[in-house]
Amino acid sequence: MSLDLDARQRAMLEEMHVHVWWPESGEGAVSAAAPVAAPGPVRAAPKNIAEAMAAAPELAAAHASTPPATTIVARASAGDIEGMDWPALQQAVAGCVACALSKSRKNTVFGVGPAAPADGRPPQADWLIIGEAPGENEDIQGEPFVGQAGKLLDNMLKAIGVSRHGAEDGQPHKAACIVNVLKCRPPGNRNPAPEEVAQCAPYLRRQVELLQPKVIIAMGRFAVQSLLQDTVPDVVATPLGRLRGKVHQYHGVPVVVTYHPAYLLRSLPEKAKAWADLCLAMDVWKKRKAAETAQLAVQAEIG
Ligand code: SF4
User: Fold this and answer.
1) Where does the record place the Uracil-DNA glycosylase-like domain (predicted)?
2) Positions of E strands within 97-197
3) Residue range 55-65, pLDDT digits in tens
4) Which end of the chain is more exposed for a tag (fewer CB within 10 A), N or C?
């Protein structure tokens, strides 16, 4: 695909060490459509145990009686989570003590994106970026992808007109929500344990169901394995590079695989591949957007 990018976006790609051919114009140009959600601060939600407990005393009782760190304790059932709206899901994550990571975290990291409406609906975001788990800074700040890796991710997204805030600098952007597979930091940034992933999976699944993104970008080996474990045979043994360049599926949503920004910071040559992955994701988004527009036109004609 080709992208018609402005000078600011080209500068961002230069910063990423990505050199591409710049078309003067074309059908593949990125549209400057209005953002799908109004910009503004993310709706206040409890980020940590203390805030959640203040809002829900029953969580305080549950956490006070939490067994030793290696013991898995109850959380809301998967069935209950499936019925939650966006604020209820935020609250459930903020107070979750379902796995040992609740003992060592400073904050849960639910995700970030454009402001959610006040009526319980999720933010409107066509793009969903999914990473692995919070690191040290994310744990402290309660937000995913901060620091140098977060800055690189933001620049990559801005280069295709996408932003975690929906709009910046008065320019319209397509909106992205950014979340992790795990909502709590594994101590020392160790790999997540299978039981931790299993306990946390219903939250991510519900986020996807509520957001209904047009495309998911899975960043890094762990996120890719978690999302594609039911659809790609032997995904754990498959190198990430062999999963790139195809459109996968997660609960009916197209998934594009790419490298984690933290890896890209250490591997400059891979940035060009990440740019190709973003272009593939943009192709997917454009096709789905066009199909949606056509469907709405048909409905308008009928109704
Ligand atoms: S990692 Fe997920 S399942 Fe474990 S305590 Fe945090 S929110 Fe709950």
Assistant:
1) 117-279
2) 127-131, 162-163, 167-168, 171-172, 174-180
3) 444 334 434 33
4) C
